[in-house]
């Protein structure tokens, strides 16, 4: 990889410090401070009346789906006070803001001037209000008509020597209807280059679950939490990333569930939760969540799980039939005896050392699990972004299979998705490796031959652009540059494109690091009223647990020059494919019901789509695991055998993971405070164990630079402040996107190709 990727500014957030203020980490999430923070942001950005109108319909059955995380809404007890969390309210403040930017703004602000701002500053400028174009060599975006913009896209795509020279990215906020149209357009154009944000987060989960259980989705419903005996939470910070999950955990705990949290950091939401919708919560009472907290080393999850399994096997041998579900193992799984043999030949002392968890805590955990059958396992990025992520998730599945904890009430798998419709996008066909069965459905319905060869995922498309094998990049939402690894390498890749196109609601860094030409296409947000031919339209989303429900915007758009994602896609398709198109795009421009009619013909589980999506609360998609079946070759769940490979690092090196602050959702920065961790007014920090600080002869509060040398390429993140924090020795944590520059493009998870953002070896040097 070239080492001169710093030739142009703007790829990274500026290194200017903003004034760190430290306080003690909070012990409990939410409560009154969360309510105050949410309403302050909403009223400041949206205004009182518009803000209250939006919040009143957020996550309601007759309202719109939250543009933040994918945690499911309760089927039967949605709060009339407010079915949303602090960060959901902040997401609405961002989207429903009355601030807007158009031609005048871009005339006054050059691309280089905007690129010198932080992501936080860029995001606060307002909603994009009209389509904009940056010509070759231009310094300022300028207005362009929608017709001209679509014509430029069509011309650029048709001038390529092969459709595979174009890349079509999708964020997780795209609706089912838009996602279906997008993949249909891309395949009619002739490629499967459909990378999406799943490639960077839960791809490892999909691979692991698909190979082990036959379906790449979780198996539980929300009500399963209320029946569970044990809930395992691994590599997840629900207090910040999925706050409404805390309500479910609190209810589960009151119903008798034991909650075991496995995470390198003692996060506030894991420890305790003050429910702002209850009097006790507002008073700080009845808040405890976690019963057992295991401060595992970064990537110590697999050896921990294997140690637990070994101890359970030992106890099963002493008292047969009391620990493992032998009937389930015999009838519904394969490979148990091989796994048993493998585990018996592992050294449990080595596993304990590698995990960082002591024998006493380990034994306490096994004591809890020993006689329980209703076990739910939840996980997020802390498990999915390592080199061995697929095997680690399969190890977690091993544990559930040993206990017979799949396919029964109160038990199962729960990969907690981040974006609100990231699961739905994949269901709709946003995938670079489509199945032959899916492609046949496309062929049968639309009478064209979709491409069969696999396309490029996120990492592969970045390399293709960098090597000039792909030159047109189109993003359906998201902030690609800030979400991806190896920031300078990715920036150089985007700059080599002939055209970059961003379909967006807000300005972000991906608009400022661009191809030779660039387009910004402003679209309606989830909260915006969507009128088509005088009729209000609805879209739909799929949550983390497979519920598909309608979403209906209720706010007047801030500009009359915004188009919806489905309309934008149809117009791009028409401009590109012209009269040769095998798809009648005009019918979709009459009413979205026509989109859903075709989804029903292509995607299993969507029978009577238009009728069922209008049922308040929506409907569940079929899930074989939930029903106790496994869509594998032999119809049985597969145990997996894996050996943990300890990380080899030097004494002066640390294993770093990137994390979110509390004032952040993915790449969107709401503010500069990480309230729960006691870090305020600064994002350029590195959380380190106090012993590591002493060993490296550093001091708390000292300014340092961070270095990664993967494959002998030096990557540097400049100007970070050392903060002493309760994290295991040898480990460190930093915020993304600031530290993404350290994540190597070639360091990926086996099988899933997910960037290893939780598995970065660094050295720390005084600045």
CATH topology name of the largest domain: Rossmann fold
Give helix % range. 25-40%
Termini Cα gap: 25 Å
Number of H- or I-type helical stretches: 31
Q: Which consecutive residue ranges, at least 5 long each, have pLDDT under 50? A: 1-7, 279-283
State the CATH class of the largest domain: Alpha Beta
Per CATH, the architecture of the largest domain is 3-Layer(aba) Sandwich
Report the strand count: 32
Overall number of domains: 4
Residue fraction in strands: 15-25%
Strand order within the widest beta sheet: 6-5-17-16-15-7
How large is the radius of gyration? 25 Å
Dominant shape: globular
Q: Please summarize the sheet with the most strands.
A: 6 strands, mixed
Global structural class: alpha/beta
Query: How much is the average pLDDT?
Result: 93
Structure description:
There is one protein chain. With 767 residues, this protein is α/β, with parallel strands linked by helices. The chain folds into four domains: 21-27 and 644-766, Barwin-like endoglucanases (Beta Barrel), CATH 2.40.40; 30-95, no CATH class; 100-197 and 421-591, Rossmann fold (3-Layer(aba) Sandwich); 203-415, Dimethylsulfoxide Reductase, domain 2, CATH 3.40.228.10. The strands form ten sheets. It has a six-stranded mixed β-sheet with strand order 6-5-17-16-15-7, with helices on both faces. Strands 24-31-28-30-29-32 form a six-stranded mixed barrel. The chain is globular and about 75 Å long. 59% of the residues are buried. Residues 1-7 and 279-283 have low confidence and may be disordered.
